[in-house]
Amino acid sequence: MKKAVEPSAERPAKAFSSEVATGSRKENASKQESEAPFRSHRNGKGFRAADRIRASAGELFYREGIRAVGVDEVVERAGVTKPSLYRSFASKDELAAAYMRDYEANFWEKFEKPGGKSYSDAREHVLAYIRVLSANAVAEGYRGCGLTNATVEYPSRDNPARQVAEAHKRLFRKRLRELAGSMGARHPAVLGDALLLLIEGIYVTGQQSEDGPAQSALTVAKLLIDASVAKG
User: Fold this and answer.
1) Mean pLDDT of 33-51
2) What is the pTM of this model?
3) How many other CB atoms sit within 10 Å of the CB of residue 129?
4) In the chain, what are the domains?
């Protein structure tokens, strides 16, 4: 039996910190600072209807899939009316795009500080992220990466949620290549892409079996890095 997922292990929970933004991610930070992050559902005063909608949608979309969840289910969970939802979001697609932006914000915070710790060494940074990710992948309720899932759910590149997800994946690929270069890889682009393929594999196989290949991911990552880095 899988262990229970740690709170917010894979769900959007906090706003993107500009302190960990690098490159073009800084442009995303200012946009996301004005948007409320997904939070646990509550109906207390001062917690706006739009916030409750985002929180409820985030939980449902991640667990069940975006297309499987209707707006009726979102408003029921949020404790608001359907007109309230449409006053905040023009359509379900726009709500899904907001979920993607919040998910991405939380992703970068967790990627740049795996386990809540900063790393100055690129190799240790990547390995720490894969170590945390592999542990989460065998936990109960793990549903992989919400951004990856969205690209599968929405084949059309015109969909707002898919556009957010695709833009994120391009940035993530660039970031991994940067880290590979910092490791001293002979071919940083190749190592970065290899690490991306490994991480995406964890996202998928972690949903399929608690004793799947994700448990070997850390060892695989070390082998990839050691084989790619020039010996001094």
Assistant:
1) 51
2) 0.78
3) 22
4) 9-25+36-102 (1.10.357.10), 113-232 (1.10.357.10)
